[in-house]
Amino acid sequence: MSKVSVIIPVYNVEKYLKECLDSVVNQTLKDIEIICVNNGSVDNSLQILEEYSAKDCRIKIIDKNNTGVASARNEGIKAASGEFIGFVDSDDWIELDYFEKLYKAAIEYNSDISYTNIVKFFNENKVERFYGPNDKRIAKSAEEKYEMGYVPYNCHVVNKIYNTKKVKLLNVLFEDGFYFEDMEWTHKILYYLGTMAAVPDTRYYYRIRENSITKTIAEKNLNDLDRARYKSLDFVQKKDIKIKNIKAYFPTEKTRISFLGLPLLKIARFVNYKYFYLFGFIPVFEIKKRFYFDDGVQS
């Protein structure tokens, strides 16, 4: 049994894939298995995976049709046999001691989860945001884990490792067909698993691309983001988890339309509502969009 199963969903990332794989295969923790799920790539991503697999027997390739990153992660979880599961997106990279330090912390503190810093960067080298723990510590309650992991502001499945056996027993899967599927998954996993250990001295590098889901503004993306927020908030309320700033689930987004420097229209978007203000302050119109979840409940 490997110490860590590294799950890498891959889709049309030939530009970044080698940097990602190099950072994983050269980890100081050698006892890992690397599960690469090729999610129907139509560029040279699969060929790159095969080249690396031929040189490193730890790399396992699952080749499937493109059904989304959620499906790819679920396939990786099913195939994982290590003590812990870790996720790395195929356009990101990690420091070489990343998994060694996360694994050692999990063993030292007998924790189901360990997590570390994440650096978000845009246009190759511009650091957009850095967050994570400043010292070694553990969180036991759901409230402590949420606060330490910056939930709900950041619900990344990367920058952490998880107890494989417990994840499989819980059978908490990523929901297919929707963007921001990691938000609800993170809420559930942090709640159901045991203690979480903080590791301050290594980093995960998260690349934000111009055409990424988080950067692209589209109706599908916005609807799925609202949906993820609704379902995550619903879970928090059902489990009576105390969140310090509950409004963080639904930030207001504002757009202003001006002419010659004069404000003509302000559009304020709050969850599934849109409010229109003439000259920026006179309310003239509102729109409410309804959402339907798989459980048949209308919100």
Mind explaining what this structure looks like?
This protein has about 300 residues and is of the alpha/beta class. It is built from eight helices and 14 strands. The strands form two sheets. Strands 1, 2, 3, 4, 5, 6, 7, 8, 9 and 10 form a ten-stranded mixed beta sheet that branches. A four-stranded antiparallel beta sheet has the order 11-12-13-14, with no helix packed on it. Helix 2 links the parallel strand 2 (about 30-40) and strand 3. Helix 7 runs parallel beside helix 8. The longest helix is centred in the C-terminal third of the chain and has 20 residues, at about 220-240.
Topology:
Layout: E1 4-10, H1 17-25, E2 32-39, H2 45-55, E3 59-64, H3 69-79, E4 84-87, E5 93-94, H4 98-108, E6 113-122, E7 126-131, E8 137-139, H5 142-148, E9 160-163, H6 164-170, H7 181-192, E10 196-208, H8 219-238, E11 252-259, E12 262-270, E13 273-278, E14 282-288
Parallel strand pairs: 1-2, 1-4, 2-3, 6-10
Antiparallel strand pairs: 4-9, 5-10, 6-7, 6-9, 8-10, 11-12, 12-13, 13-14
Helix pairs in contact: 7-8
State the gist of this model.
The protein is α/β, with parallel strands linked by helices and 299 residues long. Helices cover 29% and strands 31% of the residues. Residues 213-217 and 290-299 have low confidence and may be disordered.
What is the helix/strand order?
EHEHEHEEHEEEHEHHEHEEEE
* C-alpha-based Rg, rounded: 20 Å
Low-confidence stretches: 213-217, 290-299
How many β strands by DSSP? Answer: 14
Structural class comes to alpha/beta
If helices are DSSP runs of H or I spanning 4 or more residues, what is the number of helices? Answer: 8
Would you tell me the overall average pLDDT? 87
Largest sheet: 10 strands, mixed
Distance between the termini: 45 Å
Task: Give the DSSP E fraction (strand runs of 2 or more residues).
Answer: 25-35%
The general outline is globular
Question: How helical, in percent, are the residues?
Answer: 25-40%
